[in-house]
Specification:
The complex is a heterodimer of chains A (123) and B (113).
Chain A lengths: L2 E4 L3 E3 L5 E8 L8 E6 L5 E7 L6 E3 L7 E6 L4 E6 L8 E8 L10 E4 L3 E5 L2
Parallel strand pairs in A: 2-11
Antiparallel strand pairs in A: 1-3, 3-8, 4-5, 4-9, 5-6, 7-8, 9-10, 9-11
Chain B lengths: L3 E4 L2 E4 L5 E7 L4 E2 L4 E2 L1 E6 L6 E5 L3 E2 L7 E6 L2 E6 L8 E7 L11 E5 L1
Parallel strand pairs in B: 2-12
Antiparallel strand pairs in B: 1-3, 3-10, 4-5, 6-7, 6-11, 7-8, 9-10, 11-12
The chains are: A mainly beta (123), B mainly beta (113).
């Protein structure tokens, strides 16, 4: 069965960086884009960007360009999302999610989600 | 960016009754290339990630009970839950995937009356 398993909670100080991992299993890792979506406490969902696990090509929402880096390691079927220069309003649950489409079809909505990683930014 | 606005923000419905949630986009999400509306609905229960319910505005995801139905086109969309069950208590989000950034509505919290 398809699973996306994320790394554990993190507490960081303002200005630090955090790297969250997302390990995929149960499907062909290189066949589906992985997206990252965040959710501030008690708030709605915010799309951050995607990575093509096959090529490593990324596309970030304009808001996150320059502060977020998505990478992958196909040898361990994992994608990573790093946020730099953390601020208090980066406190959120960060989710990885698989694109519904496979192969050459991309749809930009999400059929499987990781369990979420809480990142807390506090001095 | 396309702004997605849901109404109401919260809703209380009796068990067995109908719940209706609306979603409006700031511009049309209809794609003439495939004649479809690029709109999804998700359900999020406390402490869980969102779950895909509906895509292409009205196509129910595999395994989703048929008491969930959705409709709409262009800029106005509706999710309807007929015969509300206790397990349907959740926050519901719409999302457009017509153009990046792929934006979500603010969510509608559904409770039992």
């Amino acid at each position: 069965q398809v699973q996306l398993v994320q790394s554990g909670s993190e507490v960081k100080k303002p200005g630090a960086s955090v790297k969250v991992s997302c390990k995929a299993s149960g499907y062909t890792f290189t066949g589906y884009y992985i997206h990252w979506v965040r959710q501030a406490p008690g708030q709605g969902l915010e799309w951050m960007g995607w990575i093509n696990p096959n090529s490593g090509v990324t596309n970030y929402a304009q808001k996150f360009q320059g502060s977020v880096t998505m990478t992958r390691d196909a040898s361990v079927t994992s994608t990573y999302m790093e946020v730099n220069s953390l601020k208090s309003d980066d406190t959120a649950v960060y989710y990885c999610a698989r694109d519904f489409g496979s192969g050459l079809r991309r749809f930009y909505f999400f059929d499987y989600w990781g369990q979420g990683t809480l990142v807390t930014v506090s001095s | 960016d396309i702004v997605m606005t849901q109404s109401p923000d919260s809703l209380a419905v009796s068990l067995g009754e109908r719940a209706t949630i609306n979603c409006k986009s700031s511009q049309s999400v209809f794609s003439s290339s495939n004649n479809k509306n690029s709109l999804t609905w998700y359900q999020q229960k406390p402490g869980q990630p969102p779950k895909l319910l509906v895509y292409w505005a009205s196509t129910r995801e595999s395994g989703v009970p048929d008491r969930f139905s959705a409709s709409g086109a262009g800029t106005d969309f509706t999710l309807t839950i007929t015969s509300l069950q206790a397990e349907d208590v959740a926050v519901y989000y719409c999302q457009q995937y017509y153009s990046p950034p792929y934006t979500f509505g603010q969510g509608t919290k559904l409770e039992i009356k």
